[in-house]
Design goal:
homodimer, alpha/beta, Aspartate Aminotransferase, domain 2, Aspartate Aminotransferase, domain 1, 2 domains, 7-stranded mixed sheet, 10 helices, 12 strands
């Protein structure tokens, strides 16, 4: 049986809303208002300028962003931001930036930042296998740091900060690649947010950067043009040819968020309901399904768990795949099982997965093989 | 009247083959062999590894590339390569790299290279308005240069080198963004080729880099990971999440080139026939249509011309648009008219444009207004 899009629990690139996929399909041949394939429309056209303007306005509206933020659409993923950010904000600084090492992705950001300037690892969950996140009493943020960097949601380990970290007098930089626009996030307390699109808001190939104007002004003047946020801001994300199609799809997703869903507060409620459904199942499974993260640090986006043995995990994944669920294998770095339940993954799809998991456990308990 | 895709003469992102657009449309909902939307398939899936492997093999096959070339699929466009290349091959060098300044795009590459190391401008066509290209007797290439850089086709001015430049003992680096895979190109004589996709081979958002292994080895060790060609080569273009959809479309275009078209020699013939059709029309128009480039340096990709007055140009562009042709306005840097006739633009579409141009001229000559 083929796995339909609606049961795509992939860690990313992930599921997108059905209505967005249908519009993207139409746009392959003809964008309604233009009569051309979206793949062949000039990035210098009035149409594309309007796409960028509307997307920027939608993001501002959804997040209630104060006017002094720039909204940039870049290439290169979060990985490019791991370097591009410290090139602008850390080069030549005497005081180190504070970095929180909460999992696989924050761990990727740190060595790239070190190439550009001084870094202090404020806290690391490595010795605990990144199963828990620090409390505020464990984070001694420096008042001299050029910025504090953290990853709001770690997709690999399935841990998520449910609060804003740091001090009000030091710019907060947050990699929100895997929970951007998944709910309200108090964006106005963060000076810099970056997020690649391929979890909650679009296809791989475009990255959203939100930054306060004061950070933009602080950047050095000798950067390569394509790594200089100012060039992108001045050119309204059209400094060089942007990924037109990926940006168009992100626009469609923001329209879906505002329209069909009804805004970020509602999206956040739906996402919490989905996650609660699965975590309740783990907690009531008598240790058959073993949640990886500490209860208070559980991710609403990536429900990561193990089964009693590696063999049972393989059996579970094979049976899930045969039943039409896709993308459930854990990240290659740690294995196990991961159900990624980004914005577009519906509550009914989560219910189906929960039903399958219940059934799988009951059949195992009864000593019967899983069909 | 709406302009259909087949009459899309845009300078880029440009037209793509109808059969490719139809497959891309299908893939929005379901890639046949996977049953998922192409936008939601993991970049770590076997399917995507096979896409990258087949695309790499297709490019090698089409260009008859020797085995010591790496084929990389990157983000950031040619603009990123303007910096990334000299970061790897020019930093810390005593002798300058030779750069040919043949038009708008080679002019963009030079200041970015200068940030990274010494650059000598070997020749510049600026004083001639970039209407002509240098002969070999004008190019005194240094034997000490780390490399020679040139742009094979200048899209803005419509000039194209129809030969390989430089010396065999100095690596040749060629920006082929606007004529890559438009015909045979003696790739084995070039040590480094880069080309963004959005002219002849795909949508905006992915850039092909071909480089000899000896250049890869020569790069410094302290580059940010995402700017280090070695990381991308080791990871088979999957170091960080690549633009899956854009890469998939480039694969479809290479299949079309090998299959429907029948290879690069045939593609080159078709492209020459298309360009000849338009240039013959310019030459026989008694000065009504005035080709911008010198005859021997004319581009097969971008036919750039003027009309006797700016008012006539505006009238021409409005009439062409009303007749269903799109993308004919010249680049914002120089104005005028530009017919971009990349791979996917058919001979019959060129014939239609030629017919329209003939008609426009006759009506003007007869003193009648153009309908």
């Amino acid at each position: 049986m083929k796995a339909p899009n609606r049961l795509n629990f992939s860690g990313g690139p992930g599921a997108l809303p059905e209505s967005v996929l249908l519009q993207a399909r139409e746009a392959m041949i003809e964008v309604p208002e233009i009569g051309l394939s979206v793949l062949g429309i000039s990035h210098r056209s009035d149409w594309f300028a309007a796409v960028v303007a509307e997307l920027e306005a939608n993001i501002r509206g959804l997040l209630e962003l104060p006017p002094d933020y720039h909204v940039l659409l870049l290439q290169g993923g979060a990985t490019q931001q791991f370097s591009m950010l410290p090139m602008s904000l850390l080069r030549g600084k005497a005081h180190p930036a504070d970095y929180v090492h909460s999992g696989y992705w924050s761990g990727k950001a740190i060595p790239e930042a070190r190439r550009e300037g001084p870094v202090r690892v404020l806290w690391s969950g490595e010795s605990d296998g990144f199963r828990r996140l620090p409390g505020d009493d464990e984070l001694h943020c420096s008042a001299q740091a050029p910025y504090l960097h953290y990853v709001s949601n770690e997709t690999v380990e399935g841990v998520q900060f449910h609060r804003v970290l740091g001090r009000d007098d030091v710019p907060r930089v947050c990699d929100m690649s895997s929970d951007f626009l998944s709910g309200p996030c108090a964006a106005e307390r963060l000076s810099f947010i970056y997020a690649h699109a391929q979890k909650n808001i679009g296809p791989a190939g475009v990255t959203v950067v939100l930054m306060r104007d004061e950070l933009l002004k602080a950047a050095p003047n000798d950067l390569p043009a394509f790594l200089d946020y100012r060039r992108h801001a001045e050119a309204h994300s059209n400094y060089n040819t942007p990924p037109v199609f990926a940006i168009y799809v992100v626009l469609l997703v923001t329209r879906w968020l505002s329209g069909e869903i009804g805004g970020l507060a509602r999206m956040g409620e739906i996402n919490r309901t989905k996650a609660d459904r699965l975590y309740r199942l783990l907690d009531s499974s008598d240790g058959f399904y073993r949640g990886r993260a500490e209860t208070g640090n559980r991710s609403l986006m990536n429900v990561v768990f193990n089964l009693p043995t590696a063999e049972l995990e393989r059996e579970f994944l094979a049976a899930a795949s045969a039943a039409g669920f896709s993308g459930l294998a854990g990240h290659r770095a740690i294995g196990g099982v991961r159900a990624s339940i980004y914005n577009a993954l519906s509550l009914s799809a989560v219910d189906e997965l929960a039903g399958f998991m219940d059934d799988f456990q009951r059949r195992r308990a009864a000593g019967r093989s899983v069909p």
